[in-house]
Amino acid sequence: MNAPLDLPQGFNPETNMVSRDVEGKLFHAPIPAVVFAYSLVENGTPEDLDQAEKSIRAVLACQETRDTDPHQGNFLWEREDAVVEDLNAVQFILFSLIPILTQWRDRLSPELQSEMMHAVRLGLEEIARIDVHPDYTNIVLKDITNSCLGGELLGDNEFAERGYKKLVRWMRHTDKSGIPAEFNSPGYARVAVKVLKRLTDLVEHTPTRFRARTYASRLGLSIALHISTSTKRWAGPYSRAYLGQVFGDNVIDPTSPSELDTVRDWIADGTLPAWLTTVLDIRPTHFRVNETADAKNRVAISTYHTPAYDFGIASQELTTQSNRFIALQSNACIAHYTRPDDQPTGLFLSRYLTDDHWVGDYRQTPSRSASLLAEEGRFHGVQDGPRAIGLYAPRAPGSGDTGVDGWNRSHSAKAALIWDRADLVDDIWINDNQVTDLPADVPPDATIVVASGDVLFGIRPLTIQDLGVDAPIRLIERHGNLLFEMYNYKGPEKTFWEQALPGSFYRGLPQCGFYVEFAERSESDPATFCKRVASGELVDACEAPFTYEEGKERLWSVSYRRDQLEVGIEVDLMNWKLKRRWNDRKKDTYPPLDSPFARGSRKGHVEIGPAELTCGKHAAWLFAARKKRYWVAGYHGTTAKPLTLTVPDGEIKIKGFAAGTIIWDNGEVTIEAAEVEGKPQIHGGKLVSMTTG
């Protein structure tokens, strides 16, 4: 028999919830309380169940039940809140309440069951009213899961059908781009994976189960392609990431598993499919991954892997959510790199910062992390392997948000390139001179090289517009890290009338940017690499300023060319619109997925090397481990369409195929799909397993 669970740290027996002391005041969050109740009911000892009933009732007491409230059915984020404010609370609470009833209802008293069923119904009505947009990935997946499982629990077809249909709606919306708009977030991808696993485990509706499993495979493929097997980190760029996800949970807490180990654990326990092990184990030493998160708004992400580092750039930060503390957790330019011996994995990232903010200077609601280094600027970037250009601007003029604009007072505004652990930086060069003391001023046309761990970083600053007098460009040690600071302003606190849009003084956003290039330490010494980066042709051209007129653009164009390779970007400074990105292979095509061994398509036909998949007109993808004679194909269509998969060793033809995956493993074929019409015709191999709806 199980032993009773220990009460969590901070548990308050008077409230039956975990409490937090914030500046002398206690706060109680119902979300961790219901998660703890889930564990108690799952463990199931009499002591556990007694405490679970108390904690669940404490959570239910936080639900808004008045029919005059516009958010009836939602929950307080904190027990101490006066009203419902964070609309996501209902999603988190129901995500635990519904499975408790689905799996272990008979462990609870009849009275509590009745109270919970009523709370679930009110919550589902609120979820339907909110109808969160498909861009908000982790919340829309909770919406879908709660609606499907809650509708089935209540025997309410309207709720359940809404969930089934919204899954298809989310799939179609996401397939227009390739990956979710909330792209490549270590924290939120974890949520998405967990939610899809719960949906597939508990949903009764067979097509929904297979659709969720298929999409979990596609998300898992993106995750596996971004995991570095050398740094063991989840490579960027990130749409959203808190402090632990940026610096690495196992760096902050050495007892935590690495991100590589976490993904392997997901594969081992069935959260992600077993074939993703091959994606981790069979890969080139150097490779690119390109995906599109929002095709309409031209949000693309690119990642470059080598044995010494992983490096990622986004075309821009997350733009689909306006909430300040959501949008500003973006990490649009980030890299991890190896260090020798037992030194921790290195971290390099960029930020736009105002008023010299740093980690811990921000606070949300008391239950949320204050430990973040918020992005206070807007970003556009382009990457080609180890080379990239990053352009920054302050936050939206006139928005009232933190940043340099017409309505906020600021005493500094800068873009910063940040290397963690200044004590582990080996060498710094500015042009031909080695830097021995910090801070060090940097000439505007200088080339900088930073040597740390197994990597050399080459930097060339672009035009940095000074909104004051003598704004510095410098290298400095700050909070134990090395920063290259590129100031747009440093001086007395003031407002900036010329940055107010609309406004009679606005002439465009101030320029601020950098070119960055990586090299492995084994390839060159710092001085030689500095000369190499300096030898490239840097074009930094901007149209003349003019006072704002609606519809008129002011273009800033930047490119870098060396060794017959070119990377470039162009933006409109009046409205901060990305106009174009390019490299020596011409313009950016915004692919749903492109890498040397995995490729995606929006229209049901995809090729990679000698392998080809054709099926219907919806999203499809292929993974290839050719030397292992191993291929995985996925198709997202929800109605059965003819499928043909051709690989060098043979072919599979299916009369009708919907929402599923096919694995060809050295001639052994495994099929899993919501629907398969007719008997698969297999040439050159044999069917070893087929699971369908």
- Strand tally is 35
Low-confidence blocks of residues = 322-327, 362-371, 397-403
Oligomer: single chain
Shape: globular
Question: Can you walk through the features of this model?
Answer:
There is one protein chain. With 693 residues, this protein is α+β, with helices and mostly antiparallel strands. It has three domains: 11-206, no CATH class; 316-587, no CATH class; 597-692, no CATH class. Helices cover 26% and strands 32% of the residues. It has 14 helices and 35 strands. Helix 5 (137-154) packs parallel to helix 7 (186-202). The radius of gyration is 27 Å and the shape is globular.
Keywords:
about 700 residues; alpha+beta; about 30% strand
What's the gist of this structure?
With 693 residues, the chain is α+β, with helices and mostly antiparallel strands. Helices cover 26% and strands 32% of the residues.
Please render the helix and strand layout as text.
Blueprint: E1 11-12, E2 17-22, E3 25-28, H1 30-43, H2 46-60, H3 89-104, H4 110-130, H5 137-154, H6 157-175, H7 186-202, H8 206-226, H9 243-247, H10 249-252, H11 259-268, H12 276-281, E4 287-294, E5 299-305, E6 309-314, H13 324-327, E7 333-337, E8 346-354, E9 377-384, E10 387-394, E11 410-419, E12 425-430, E13 433-434, E14 440-441, E15 448-452, E16 455-461, E17 473-478, E18 481-494, E19 513-520, H14 526-534, E20 537-542, E21 555-562, E22 565-572, E23 577-583, E24 586-587, E25 593-594, E26 598-601, E27 605-608, E28 611-615, E29 620-625, E30 630-635, E31 641-647, E32 650-665, E33 668-677, E34 681-683, E35 686-692
Helix pairs in contact: 1-2, 1-3, 2-4, 3-4, 3-5, 4-5, 5-6, 5-7, 6-8, 7-8
